[in-house]
Design goal:
By secondary structure, this protein is an alpha+beta fold. It has one domain: Nuclear Transport Factor 2, Chain: A (Roll). 29% of the residues lie in helices and 30% in strands. The protein has helices at 28-41, 57-60, 67-85, and strands at residues 8-9, 15-16, 21-22, 24-25, 89-99, 102-111, 116-124. The protein has a three-stranded antiparallel β-sheet with strand order 5-6-7. A two-stranded antiparallel ribbon has the order 1-4. The N and C termini lie far apart (46 Å). Pfam families: GPW_gp25. This is IraD/Gp25-like domain-containing protein. InterPro entries: IraD/Gp25-like. Residues 28-112 form the IraD/Gp25-like domain.
Length: 126
Protein backbone atom coordinates (compact mmCIF):
# COMPACT_ATOMS: atom_id res chain seq x y z
CA UNK A 1 0.00 0.00 0.00
CA UNK A 2 1.43 3.39 -0.96
CA UNK A 3 1.89 6.00 1.73
CA UNK A 4 -0.47 8.99 1.49
CA UNK A 5 1.17 12.21 0.28
CA UNK A 6 2.72 14.35 2.98
CA UNK A 7 3.55 18.06 2.84
CA UNK A 8 4.63 20.52 5.52
CA UNK A 9 6.56 23.77 5.71
CA UNK A 10 10.31 23.30 5.69
CA UNK A 11 12.36 24.29 8.73
CA UNK A 12 14.09 26.67 8.84
CA UNK A 13 11.46 28.67 7.04
CA UNK A 14 12.68 29.73 3.59
CA UNK A 15 11.39 30.71 0.18
CA UNK A 16 11.79 28.17 -2.63
CA UNK A 17 13.37 30.30 -5.39
CA UNK A 18 12.15 27.99 -8.18
CA UNK A 19 8.52 28.26 -7.11
CA UNK A 20 8.50 31.68 -5.48
CA UNK A 21 6.71 30.41 -2.37
CA UNK A 22 7.53 28.91 0.99
CA UNK A 23 9.71 25.80 0.91
CA UNK A 24 7.89 22.54 1.52
CA UNK A 25 8.97 19.26 3.03
CA UNK A 26 7.69 16.10 1.34
CA UNK A 27 9.47 13.53 3.55
CA UNK A 28 7.80 12.66 6.87
CA UNK A 29 11.08 11.47 8.47
CA UNK A 30 12.73 14.78 7.64
CA UNK A 31 9.68 16.61 9.00
CA UNK A 32 9.93 14.79 12.34
CA UNK A 33 13.67 15.52 12.54
CA UNK A 34 12.92 19.20 11.89
CA UNK A 35 10.38 19.16 14.73
CA UNK A 36 13.00 17.68 17.07
CA UNK A 37 15.51 20.36 16.03
CA UNK A 38 12.93 23.09 16.67
CA UNK A 39 12.38 21.85 20.21
CA UNK A 40 16.12 21.52 20.84
CA UNK A 41 17.22 24.87 19.48
CA UNK A 42 14.35 27.05 20.69
CA UNK A 43 15.06 28.64 24.06
CA UNK A 44 12.19 28.85 26.57
CA UNK A 45 10.69 32.32 26.35
CA UNK A 46 11.68 32.75 22.71
CA UNK A 47 8.17 32.11 21.38
CA UNK A 48 5.69 34.76 22.40
CA UNK A 49 2.54 32.64 22.57
CA UNK A 50 4.31 29.55 23.92
CA UNK A 51 6.85 30.76 26.49
CA UNK A 52 7.47 27.22 27.80
CA UNK A 53 8.26 25.76 24.35
CA UNK A 54 11.74 24.38 23.71
CA UNK A 55 14.70 23.38 25.82
CA UNK A 56 17.40 25.85 24.73
CA UNK A 57 20.20 23.34 24.32
CA UNK A 58 22.58 26.09 23.09
CA UNK A 59 22.46 27.88 26.46
CA UNK A 60 23.37 24.63 28.24
CA UNK A 61 26.83 24.74 26.62
CA UNK A 62 27.64 27.70 28.87
CA UNK A 63 26.47 26.01 32.07
CA UNK A 64 29.35 25.41 34.48
CA UNK A 65 30.33 21.95 35.58
CA UNK A 66 31.09 19.88 32.49
CA UNK A 67 29.46 16.53 33.29
CA UNK A 68 26.93 18.19 35.61
CA UNK A 69 25.83 20.34 32.67
CA UNK A 70 25.66 17.24 30.49
CA UNK A 71 23.38 15.49 32.99
CA UNK A 72 21.21 18.60 33.21
CA UNK A 73 21.05 18.67 29.40
CA UNK A 74 19.90 15.04 29.28
CA UNK A 75 17.03 15.69 31.67
CA UNK A 76 16.05 18.96 29.99
CA UNK A 77 16.10 17.48 26.48
CA UNK A 78 14.12 14.39 27.50
CA UNK A 79 11.48 16.46 29.27
CA UNK A 80 11.10 18.95 26.41
CA UNK A 81 10.84 16.27 23.72
CA UNK A 82 8.28 14.21 25.63
CA UNK A 83 6.26 17.32 26.48
CA UNK A 84 6.15 18.89 23.03
CA UNK A 85 6.48 15.89 20.71
CA UNK A 86 5.02 13.10 22.82
CA UNK A 87 2.21 12.49 20.33
CA UNK A 88 4.69 12.16 17.42
CA UNK A 89 7.71 10.34 18.89
CA UNK A 90 8.68 8.12 21.79
CA UNK A 91 12.05 9.14 23.21
CA UNK A 92 14.07 6.01 23.92
CA UNK A 93 17.49 7.46 24.73
CA UNK A 94 19.12 10.79 25.51
CA UNK A 95 22.82 11.01 26.23
CA UNK A 96 24.91 14.14 26.56
CA UNK A 97 28.64 14.51 27.08
CA UNK A 98 30.71 17.62 27.67
CA UNK A 99 33.64 17.91 25.28
CA UNK A 100 35.77 21.04 25.87
CA UNK A 101 33.53 23.92 24.80
CA UNK A 102 30.94 21.69 23.15
CA UNK A 103 28.10 19.46 24.17
CA UNK A 104 27.71 16.15 22.32
CA UNK A 105 24.09 14.98 22.33
CA UNK A 106 22.65 11.70 21.05
CA UNK A 107 18.91 11.23 20.93
CA UNK A 108 17.17 7.98 20.13
CA UNK A 109 13.50 8.09 19.30
CA UNK A 110 10.80 6.06 17.60
CA UNK A 111 8.38 7.67 15.17
CA UNK A 112 4.97 6.49 16.39
CA UNK A 113 3.16 6.51 13.04
CA UNK A 114 5.85 4.58 11.20
CA UNK A 115 7.13 2.49 14.11
CA UNK A 116 10.71 3.19 13.05
CA UNK A 117 13.67 4.03 15.25
CA UNK A 118 15.77 7.08 14.49
CA UNK A 119 18.88 8.61 16.02
CA UNK A 120 20.00 12.21 16.02
CA UNK A 121 23.58 13.15 16.86
CA UNK A 122 24.14 16.81 17.61
CA UNK A 123 27.28 18.76 18.46
CA UNK A 124 26.31 22.00 20.18
CA UNK A 125 28.96 24.70 20.28
CA UNK A 126 28.77 28.31 21.48
Amino acid sequence: MAEPPFTSLRYPLAVDPARGRLGQEQDFDAHVEQLVMQVLLTAPGERINRPDFGCGVKRLVFAPGGEVAATLAQATIYQALTTWLGDVITVTEVTARADDAALLVRIGYAVKVLGQRRYLNLRVTP
